[in-house]
């Protein structure tokens, strides 16, 4: 089994990636397995820059193949915000509930047809030798003002998918893991990852 480190401490992301790679001979670890690696500062101005910073730092620190995603929510009528600031939209320390509350407050008077949004994910794969690969995926939807559903994490309870008539948090996890922005980015980088593992 090839070791791979997912550059996150987010248990939701870890579960999603384990599901995405369940058919491959890979042992997926996370930053939870490497407590000596400090919090990685995401100083990039784009999802791609942040993903490469995280994957590169972890590959260098562990000597193992590293995968990092940087992803977030882009709301059209907010000029793409929260974007790269999605995890800390309501400030420090990061808090999903406060982020969701801030988003609802900002959109309260915006009609539904103008609350178009997407989840975007950029996935970086960095080898122990420093080779870098990038892939991107997106998932389009609309922001609901009332949270619905108990699956998922982050903005999932507010992110409504018209074609399913459900929020991301109401979707069966198996469906979410097929259509999510992370799943689409993963499909885009899968050939490279399979060669590496």
Structural description of this entry:
The structure is a single chain. It is globular, with a radius of gyration of 17 Å. It has helices spanning about 10-20, 45-60, 95-105, 175-180, 180-195, and strands at about 1-5, 25-30, 65-75, 115-125, 130-145, 160, 165. The longest helix is centred in the first third of the chain and has 16 residues, at about 45-60. The protein is an alpha/beta fold. The termini are close together. It has 5 helices and 7 strands. It is about 30% helix and about 25% strand.
Short description:
This protein is an alpha/beta fold and 197 residues long.
List low-pLDDT spans: none
Helix content class? 25-40%
Query: What is the radius of gyration computed over CA atoms, rounded to a whole number of angstroms?
Result: 17 Å
Amino- and carboxy-terminal Cα gap = 8 Å
E-strand count: 7
Report strand %: 15-25%
SSE class: alpha/beta
Backbone shape: globular
Strand neighbour order, sheet with most strands: 2-1-3-4-5-6-7
Total helix count? 5
């Amino acid at each position: 089994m090839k070791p791979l480190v997912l550059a996150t401490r987010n248990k939701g992301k870890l579960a999603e990636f384990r599901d995405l790679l369940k058919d491959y001979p890979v042992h997926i670890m996370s930053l939870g397995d490497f407590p000596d690696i400090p919090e990685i500062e995401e100083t990039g101005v784009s999802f791609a820059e942040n993903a490469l910073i995280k994957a590169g730092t972890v590959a260098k620190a562990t000597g193992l193949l590293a995968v990092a995603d940087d992803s977030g929510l882009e709301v059209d009528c907010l000029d793409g915000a929260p974007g790269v600031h999605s995890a800390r939209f309501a400030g420090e320390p990061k808090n999903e509930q406060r982020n969701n509350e801030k988003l609802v407050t900002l959109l309260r008077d915006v009609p539904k047809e103008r609350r178009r949004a997407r989840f975007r994910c950029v996935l970086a794969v960095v080898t122990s030798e420093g080779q870098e690969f990038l892939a991107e995926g997106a998932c389009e939807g609309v922001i609901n003002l009332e949270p619905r559903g108990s699956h998922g994490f982050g903005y999932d309870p507010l992110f409504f998918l018209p074609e399913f008539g459900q929020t991301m948090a109401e979707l069966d996890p198996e469906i979410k893991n097929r259509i999510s922005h992370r799943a689409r980015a993963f499909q885009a980088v899968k050939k490279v990852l399979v060669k590496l593992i």
